[in-house]
Structures are given as C-alpha cells and as structure tokens.
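It is worth pausing here to work through a concrete case rather than discussing structure prediction in the abstract. The textbook approach is simple: state the sequence, then state the predicted structure, then interpret. We follow exactly that order.
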Amino acid sequence: MWILQWLPNWIFYAVLIAGVFGLVVSYFIRFLSFIPFLYVYKTPIQIGSMIAIAIGTFMAGAIHDNEKWEARVKEMEAKVAAAEVQSKEENVKIVTKVVTKTQVIKTRGQDIVKYVDRELVKYDTKFLPGGECEIPKEFIKAINDAAEAPK
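Step two, the predicted structure:
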C-alpha cells in the first residue's frame, strides 16, 4: 500500500490505541461528569473511536502483510543471487567444453587434410591425358575414414 511508504508504522498503532482509549472513555463518561463537554459529545466520540479502531486494525494487518511480502522478496532475491553464481559456474564449464570441442575439430580437420594430401599423392599419377581424373574407390573410402570421429 502506498500509505505505508509515506507514514511510519507507529502512527497506525497509535490510531488503534487512541480508538480503544476513546471507546473506553465514552463508556465511562458518566463517571467523568466533572468535564461537562464530554457528555455532549459521547456519541461522536464512540463513532470516531470505532472508525479509528477499524482503520488501525486494517492498517496493522496491512503492515503485517507488507512485512511478510518483503521477507519473501528478500528470500527470492537470495535464491536469484545463488542461481546467478551457479549460472556463471556452468557458463565457464560450457565455454571450456566449446573451446575443447573447437580445438578437437580444428585438429581433426588438419589431420584429414594431411591424410588426404598423403593419399592423394598415391593416385596423383593416374591422371588421364584428357585432363580427367579417375578417383579410385580406395581413395573415397580413405577420405570417409578420415572424416569419421576418432574411436
């Protein structure tokens, strides 16, 4: 509630206590006959006291509810902070895995290039005079074997 942000909590408790005090005084007004104007305002004092009790009780409940929600928010903020720390740790692990896999892929690609270059020399002499090249099945199998994941 917006009013809880502007007014201190003790004001609402003071309104509640003043309402109870006013209600008690209005019921015992006949004993306070030495104060003449109190008896004339007995009914308005009772009505105002009841309204003050109602407002004070409502706002005391609102204060309690607000404190409960603030505690829940702090608890959730702590959980989010813990999740962020865990997320950073997991991100480091993921980056490490990606870098490792990238290095493996680059190394594997270089191995394939070397393997193909080494095998290509064996079949390089079999070019036909017309500029066409016959690729043997063994060469295709060797390239496929080189491209497979290491076992």
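Step three, interpretation. The chain has one domain: 2-147. The chain has a mean pLDDT of 82.
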